[in-house]
Design a protein that fits this description.
123 residues; mainly alpha
């Protein structure tokens, strides 16, 4: 696989993981949590005007555009397993940036995913 294709995959995955963290940060704000209790239009407006959520959605959109470039270059059966790297990156970011727990069994699962991605990349 060409280096440029790997780079595009990495950018797409990084953008997707960034989106997840931004969306979580946005949804965890006190403003949105209080709006969710009230529900209805107030909740929708709070979500729609949250900078973190807006950036998260933009990051998802950018990730999708980069992913389209990936798919134009390599087989989907070779590219798609790399998406699983996003699980590892997002879990690490959740732990480091959001203080989320990362128990041993989850780490074992992430390592298994990484081994699978390496196997696919080498095939």
């Amino acid at each position: 696989m060409a280096f440029s294709s790997l780079l595009l995959i990495a950018v797409s995955i990084a953008l997707s993981s960034t989106a997840q963290v931004l969306l979580k940060m946005g949804m965890s704000t006190t403003r949105i949590q209080l709006a969710l209790v009230d529900g209805g239009i107030a909740a929708l407006l709070a979500i729609a005007t949250s900078p973190a959520i807006i950036l998260g959605l933009a990051s998802f959109g950018a990730s999708a555009i980069v992913w389209l470039l990936v798919l134009s270059r390599i087989d989907v059966s070779q590219a798609y397993p790399f998406v699983a790297l996003g699980i590892a990156i997002t879990a690490a970011a959740g732990h480091l940036l959001l203080g989320e727990a990362l128990p041993a069994l989850r780490i074992v699962g992430i390592v298994a995913i990484l081994v699978g991605v390496i196997a696919v990349a080498r095939s």
